[in-house]
Amino acid sequence: MICNAAIEEFTRVPFEKASINKIIKAAGISRGSFYTYFEDKRDILGYIFEDAADSFFDSWTHCAKKNDGDLWKTAVDFLEYSIKNAQKKMLKLAENIRDSDKLFGAAHNLCPDKDVRLEQMCEVLYSSIDTSDFKRTDLETFGQLISLIIIELARCISWTFHHPEDEEKIKKIFQEKLEILQYGIRKK
Question: Which range among 108-112, 137-141, 172-176 shows the weakest confidence by mean pLDDT?
């Protein structure tokens, strides 16, 4: 109840204007109950992001299994899945956070053990992908590649949210960008 109320508040207004009072009122709890679970609104936002990250990895792993670990097919399938299942509230929340003056440059601190968490996340993604035809198969290179793919996925999902009429065009551009990542731009 608290998380749902917080998501509503964080989508209603930018983060710095979000009110704990409105969150507890919408959740129907006392202020003390809120502070039993969370230190402040940044803490609950971190929890929401961690929950969203877990959902992301479950979905990615499902797409990877479905595509026999093929990174490129997995990315395309994941984009399709994300567009179909994107929650408008979560997209609006992400935009509000992105546009927040107080969180700009500090959002990476929402997860207390972010370096360990990022490494674990990269390992989960890596273990779901068949790297047998990769020129470089080390985890660090994979992490760099996957970060490029995730950034582009986020752009495409956001663009589709704002311009649903361009969905097919956005998917085509995404596939073209994946081809550049996969094969490069140079003549062989």
Answer: 108-112
Q: Are 24 and 4 in contact (CB under 8 A)?
A: no
Question: Counting beta carbons within 10 angstroms of the beta carbon of residue 174, is it exposed (0 to 12), middle (13 to 18) or buried (19 or more)?
Answer: buried
Distance CA 14, CA 60 (A): 29
- Is 174 in contact with 156 (CB distance < 8 Å)? yes
Q: Measured between alpha carbons, how far is residue 67 from residues 73, 74, 91 in Å?
A: 6, 6, 26
Q: What is the dihedral of CA 169, 170, 171, 173, to 10 degrees?
A: 90
Q: How far apart are CA 102 and CA 99, in angstroms?
A: 9
Q: By mean pLDDT, which of 40-54, 70-84, 115-129 is the weakest?
A: 115-129
Q: What are the angstrom distances between the C-alpha of 7 and each of 116, 144, 158?
A: 26, 30, 18
Work out the burial of residue 68: count CB atoms within 10 Å of its CB; fewer than 13 is exposed, 13-18 middle, 19 or more buried.
exposed
Q: Phi and psi at residue 103, in whole multiples of 5°?
A: -100, -10
Q: Which two tokens stand for residue 111?
A: 């997860």
Total residue length of the chain: 188
